[in-house]
Write a structure and sequence with these properties.
Blueprint lengths: L1 H9 L2 H28 L6 H16 L1 H18 L6 H74 L1 E7 L5 E3 L2 H6 L10 H7 L5 H14 L3 E8 L5 E12 L5 E10 L1 H37 L11 H13 L6 E4 L6 H10 L8 E5 L8 H6 L16 H4 L4 E5 L6 H13 L1 E3 L6 E3 L3 E6 L3 H7 L4 H7 L2 E4 L10 H16 L5 E2 L1 H9 L5 H15 L4 E2 L3 H11 L6 H20 L10 H5 L3 H11 L12
């Protein structure tokens, strides 16, 4: 607290101005005190020396004005106290010495102040320079750290990207590279990687001329360049390298150096090759899928409308029993039967219950393909095999590999195709049309026909050896007229199917319609029944299905051959007389409970057909003649 008060008191302006003068008085007083002590002890008088010391101290620490005060005080003391001891000349000399000493001290004080100012200025400059240097050093350290970090990131990035940077000095031929070059080029620690010979020695002999030519051309034209080449490592492995170089020129346009990067693109090349292979495989699978889709669309277009084998008649059960026995085997099956009996459905049932059910089922209608194209369709053809063969085509046997092929209407195959089919059955291999390569095949063959192949063999229209190869396991599909027990089930099945498709609600089938279906012989078999039911569903406007017997009668009449002769005329005359008598009794009415159709016990549509056929004029029987 006391020191703080003294400090505040000393810092006052009037106090700070009085201190130098107090110093002058104190220093002279001290000199006088020392002189008196010396005199008391009879020592040599040295006031002049003491006074000069006091003046010097005052000038040095108090300044010029306090120093002058000290000189004046010293002269006054000397004049009044010690004047008797010295002569007049000595007094003048003493005063002159004091004055000269005062002038000298004043000059020294001024020089000291100038030096102190210069020192202060220099010190400030040095301090500022030192601070700036510290800041610069700190910034330099940060920049160096950032540069080291960037270099570390760059080296790590080059390591991850399998690449390195390089610079080729045009004057010395030396190459400066980043450390990654040793790993990529497989260089040992003792190998010198700064020479052009090292890099050229690693390049594959087949790629070296092109690499040297590209670099020399870029150097000659002073342009950037890119180069791809292979290198051979010491262990014999091969890598693919992609290099980019850029020339650096001086003011005169001369190349100073080439700088660039080199990247190991082996993995990219391998991935590209695998990708190309995968694309090729995808293309093959796509083409195969396209061919299978084409075949599938053809099967859908040509398939029967029903999807399941419907029925429980003994004749059908016998066929199903054969299917269950032959399906697990790979034996060739020959399905025979009239048209429309569902031979392809039987073939599909065999395939579905076989060990090949997970593979393709390819159906071919041999009768629908021109004889000139049947071989190409079955076995495929090479590009340019014939006019219009613009690309290679896979045949049905290739599409059915490891699956089942169904040859419908096999009896329609031409002779040369029968020979090729026989070879497939015997040797399980074939050749494409226009090709020479033998292709193996693993296909189960199921054939079908509505012809009598035995008669065709006898007439020479079908090869006997092929017939025996196909007829390993014969299955005869019965016609619908032999499956009358199945007709109600088939009618209900088709009614439900087409009613759902047409969005109609049909709950009942007319009794007469069902009886008519069971008595009709169905020469077109299931296909004819299917078409009749579809037509009836389309025309049905209520909830009860009915069939116009004229549809069946007309088809039955058209299916019968025209008869002629005396017996025919006699039967027609008798039929005409009976119908005319019934018309006469009913007053010319055909329909109704009292109509001629009811009296004769035949459908109205049948009677109308007979009237037209026999040219009977029913209008000549008026109602009053009843």
């Amino acid at each position: 607290m006391v020191n703080r008060g003294i400090t505040k008191w000393a810092a006052r302006p009037d106090v700070s101005r009085m201190v130098p003068y107090t110093l002058a008085i104190a220093s002279i007083t001290g000199a006088l005190f020392l002189e008196l002590i010396f005199a008391h002890f009879h020592l040599p008088h040295a006031f002049a020396a003491f006074a000069l010391s006091a003046i010097a101290i005052t000038f040095w620490y108090g300044g010029t004005k306090p120093g002058i005060v000290a000189v004046l005080l010293a002269i006054m003391i000397r004049s009044y106290l010690f004047e008797a001891e010295i002569s007049a000349v000595s007094r003048v000399l003493y005063d002159l010495v004091f004055v000269i000493f005062a002038v000298l001290m004043s000059w020294l004080k001024r020089r000291r102040s100038e030096l102190e100012e210069k020192v202060a200025e220099r010190t400030a400059e040095l301090t500022q320079a030192n601070e700036e240097l510290k800041i610069e050093i700190a910034e330099r350290k940060k920049a160096d750290e950032k540069l080291r970090r960037s270099e570390a990131y760059l080296l790590e990035g080059q390591r991850l990207l399998h690449m390195f940077s390089w610079a080729h000095d045009a004057a010395t031929g030396r190459v400066t590279s980043s450390p990654e070059v040793r790993r990529i080029f497989g260089a040992a620690a003792e190998e010198d990687v700064s020479t052009t010979e090292f890099f050229l020695g690693r390049i594959h002999p087949e790629d070296r001329p092109d690499a040297e030519r590209e670099f020399a051309g870029a150097a000659l034209s002073k342009v950037s360049y890119e180069s791809d080449y292979r290198i051979i490592l010491p262990d014999g492995s091969i890598k693919n390298i992609h290099t980019i170089g850029h020339p650096v020129v001086n003011e005169s346009g001369d190349i100073v150096e080439f700088v660039g990067t080199a990247m190991d693109v082996t993995e990219q090349r391998r991935a590209r090759a695998e990708l190309e292979t995968a694309f090729e495989e995808i293309k093959k699978l796509k083409d195969q899928l396209h061919d299978e889709n084409v075949a599938l669309r053809e099967q859908i277009d040509q398939a029967f409308m029903f999807e399941e084998i419907v029925g429980s008649s003994p004749a059908l059960q016998s066929v199903l029993s054969k299917i269950l026995k032959v399906a697990p085997t790979d034996s060739t099956v020959l399905i025979t039967g009239e048209t429309g009996t569902g031979k392809e459905l039987i073939a599909r049932a065999i395939h579905k219950r076989s060990q090949r059910s997970g593979r393709a089922f390819i159906a071919v209608n041999c009768a629908s393909i021109p004889s000139s194209l049947i071989a190409s369709e079955l076995f495929g053809h090479e590009k340019g095999a014939f006019t219009g063969a613009l690309q290679r085509h896979q045949g049905r046997f290739e599409l059915a590999h490891s699956g089942t092929i169904f040859l419908d209407e096999v009896g329609e195959l031409p002779g040369e195709t029968q020979i090729a089919l026989l070879r497939v059955l015997q040797e399980h291999r074939f050749e494409r049309v226009g090709g020479t390569r033998v292709l193996p095949t693993d296909v189960r063959v199921i054939a079908a026909t509505n012809r009598d192949l035995g008669a065709a063999v006898a007439s020479g229209a079908f090869r006997a050896d092929l017939f025996y190869r196909l007829n390993v396991f014969p299955v005869e599909v019965p016609p619908l007229r032999q499956r009358k027990e199945d007709i109600p089930m088939l009618v209900e099945y088709f009614v439900k199917r087409y009613a759902e498709k047409a969005g109609k609600q049909i709950y009942k089938i007319d009794k007469n319609t069902m009886e008519l279906c069971q008595t009709y012989p169905w020469p077109g078999n299931i296909r004819e029944l299917q078409n009749i039911i579809e037509r009836s569903v389309i025309l049905c406007s209520g909830h009860t299905l009915w069939i116009d017997d004229a549809w069946l009668t007309n088809e039955e009449q058209s299916s019968r051959p025209e008869l002629s002769g005396p017996l025919t005329e006699t039967l027609q005359n008798q039929e005409k007389e009976i119908i005319e008598a019934a018309l006469a009794v009913s007053g010319g009415r055909v329909a109704g409970p009292n109509g001629a159709a009811a009296k004769l016990g035949i459908p109205r549509s049948t009677l109308d057909s007979k009237i037209k056929q026999l040219k009977i004029r029913k209008h000549k029987y008026p109602p009053e003649t009843q």
